[in-house]
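To whoever picks this up:

The parser on our side crashed when reading a file containing two proteins. I've narrowed it down to the boundary between the first structure block and the second sequence. Both blocks are reproduced below exactly, byte for byte. First block:
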Amino acid sequence: MSLFVRMSCLLSGILLSANVMAAETDVIQPVAEMTLAQMDGEEDAAAEEDASMGGEATMGGEASMGGEAEAVADVAPAPAPAPAPVAEPAPVATDDAAAEEEVDYGSWGTEWHGYFRTPFAIGISSRTDPDNPDSGDNLQGSPWWGSNHIYDKEKNYYNFGFTRLQEGDWAQILITASHKHVAATVGGMGWWYQFVSQNRSAAAWWPGLADVTLNTDFDLGGKNANIELKMGAFLEPYAYNGVYDTYLIQRSHLVGEHVKLTIPVSDTFTLALTHGFGANKTGVDGEDGSIAHTLAHYANVVMNIGGKVDLGLYYNSSWSNDPTFYENGDTMPGTFEDYRESRMRVMGADVHLRLPKFGHLWAAMNFISVKNGWALGEAIEVMHSFGGGGVASNYLPNSQTGSGSTINASWIWENSIQGFKGNGVGGDFPDLTFTVFGMMSMASMDDVPDGADDSRTQIKGGFDMTFWPKSWVGVMFRYDGVNFGKDYAAGPAADGEALEVSYHVFTPRVIFKSNFVSAESLWIQFSKYAFSDDVNDNYYLEDGPDALVFKMQANIGW
């Protein structure tokens, strides 16, 4: 009897072991199949978001344009590897240690990118003491952030007069985790270093951005095409002017989607098609702190020809029919139908030309039309302006509804002596680099009061030359000229007419780097301003703004 019991127990143990092995096989095998599917394809480079407001590089575009932190190049994916030979099935693992060896989960890569600049600027002038009008002129200093002794239009990013010579502080951090066909990015940014100043919690945004990108190659008519899908809170920059730190087409501020299809049509011609759609959540006045949405979408075509020419065609549109704007906002008087009709459209093109000895030329042009711009939020940043309201304020000031259109153009050309010799910029030292740049805007306003001007032209431009005796030190001279034409936003002159606002700036600068092509720099500069009479005579400070500004600044992007 005991023998029978022992044999029954042994048989039960064998059956139980078989069941356990079968269960383990069911669990392990699907995991292995899923991992192999994830591993199929090429490595996808984590896409670095462009959230900064600056950098030192002067030119860029969808892929090639941008400053130290603005330059966000889409890395062309490597061709998919050839299929590996089919291997014999491996024995099924029967314990945890064997399962760990059998299942290859691949590797995740984590990288982080950032940018910051830390400027210190002080305006220098001779003025009477504030508590003693009879003191006579004494030398005084006014810090950048402490007063508007330094001309407000020069240091304010959100207006046409911004030259970037007196740009403010900025910092950003972006962290990306990527694996095969997926990349996830989260980041924050801000503009006020609170440890060395008073607290301004609204000056920093964390989290500021967060998105997930899926990417894969596929066969398209025998071509190794690539498609990318991004969703989240992100920004997409196009036609970036690094001299003035602004965008001729857009920098989107959206939560939504972005799709990009890249097709290598031939060895010398690549076509990239992009589309995006999303919304900007804008706060409006109201006791309940309501949030209203501005919707936007964009579609672009960018062509690369032989690695020497990039041609981009762009379109974006933003609009709102959110009743929250009308119910709780006071940005524009009118009916809800006026809000429903609010819209801004941007159409344009840019071109990069890179030829041996010729250097790098970038030129861009756009057409912006705005209807009831005061009702639009900050979905699209363009031409130093946030959304339709910003465009209306900067370029259509006489329009009672923020309606009208503008034609805008910008250009940058850069080269060096070594470039003319065919060695490339920074190819040898000593070297002399030079840049010519400019921007103009011609606006036509609708819905203007009787007798008011319905057009406005603004233009700015200049050049710089930098002598590099060594790779780590340079001496620059830069000239800027800015002409607002008739500036109604600045107020009336003594004769009741709009102010004729213009100024010239002469700036020598000394630059230190660890290497000529590195992303960091330390520099010291003086800027001498020559303002038009209307600026000096009508500025709210006696004797006008400071004519001399000393500045030092640290910059780095990684």
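<<boundary where parser fails>>
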Amino acid sequence: MPARSSIALRRAPWGLPALVVGVLALPLFTNRTFGYDWPDHLWLVWQQAQSIAQMGRPSYFLQAYQGVYQPFFAFYGGTFYAVTGAVADLIGGHPTVAYCAAIIAAFAGAYVGWTWLALQAGVRGWRAQIPGLLYVTAPYIITTPFGRGDVPESIGTCAIPLVAASGLALLRAERVRPLPAAALVLSAAWFTACHNITSLWGTTFLALTAGVLLIAVGRRRVRPRRILEVLGLAALGVAINAWFLFPTIAYSGRTAIAHGGVGAFQFDAWQLVFDPFRSQPETSTAGILNTQMPVLAFVWALVVLAIAWRRMPMPWRRFAAGMVLIVVALLALILTNMSIVPRPWSQIQFPYRAQTYVALGVCAMVLAAVAAIPFLTSRLLRSTALGALVVIAATSFGQAIHQQWRQPSQLASRRLVFQPENKHPPSWYSQFDYADISMPVVPFGAVVGIPGVTITGGNGESILVVPTHGHSDINTVTFPSPGARPIATNVYGGPYLVKVTGVRAIARTPSSELVIEPLAPKGQQAKVTFSTAHTVPVVLGVATTLAALAVCLLLAAWAIGRAVRGRQFSRLAQRERGGVPG
């Protein structure tokens, strides 16, 4: 009995992740729609799920009632919406279930990543759980999915700890093992599948942290070949997303949203950033946004590191100092409204988004401080530090729960998300962010109408409505040709993603609607077909994704076959030694 009790006591801390993630998941089992973007991303998952159900593959386009062929999925979270939509279709058309499951899995993955890092750092027991707990309960980490409702950004950033943990495990191991390798490929794929600016900033943060780690351990302990192997596995994961990343890199500069600025500076005031009580500015009109850094955890880590500094091994000193510098630099950028940040990093849109990386840096500092506790000079100091850490972790957990449940719901019911005729939900506000703005502009008054065919748009212009037959990306419309005259359509993609036959795509209206010119002579029937353009970035992107998936399957088959052969060889060896009866 005593032995069993001891084992149970040692295993008890492993119930903490389930408790924390389970409690944080509870609001998702209600009918609430949280912050202002939350229902919109659910609607987008539903749209892609319908495209997959109809065409058997994901689409680049939103085919909405308000406008068609908007290349949303070519520029924003393509694989996230495709995978979540495919799961929704696979389980019988339940996008809400797939969507909420993705959020829960992301928080669990972040917690697992931090715990894995702690174990690799030599931290054991309940202490190994603290960095993960502090991360998933940090103010902005809760704000992103529940306050702002930016679920793809949240899911992408939650993959960063797992990328770091699996990469570090491979770097430290004697040989590349299948499970850490698979974890790196999958986490790198999911990290870059969701949110482009997160991919950029997150990669930069990981590179800086890797540089700090390299300085901390010294170049003599680094194996260049292993680094290349780890980078290759990460690149394999990223390549899975090439089907939308290649068009993003090639064409995103031609969209409306690419030319926006940086704003929402009211959330970056120092009195908010350093507020341990998670206040919000009175000027907030976007729900409850908590843009604070994890203040209490930051102060605790600084104090413990300062006290233990002289006794800490040099690698830990270098690592802790590097992470402090990264956190301070990020805070400086936030407090100065990103005024010195060059493109493309300045496309972060809101400086407070960098609080994600502040939270990551602070949790890395906490990990270093937890590892430094044995170097504190007295038992009283060690007990006091651990007691304070428990109080801070419990406070953060309680604040996160309060933060979630006080968040108002954007819509009265999730049913309002699922509008008929592919209409935008009532919460939709982004209009046509990914519409083309690279083509020349034709004034509204210059486009012609076709009696009985075109309708009148919101600016008084005549619009040819392209029927989409559900979510198909191949659609045809016929009409009496007015000759070589400009006709406005309800199409919002540029000719680099939307192929048009039977007409010439010549321009756009001031509201970014595609303007076409029929090739058929006046009076004859014009037949116009719209489909996905197979440009070089599109073709190369799809080919790269398929090749990456094929390589992943081959590597998985090889690893499984090797494991099976190894097990069979082990059993045979045991039988020869008489260990297993024949």
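After patching the parser it read the second block fine. The mean pLDDT is 93. The first strand starts at residue 62 and ends at 64.
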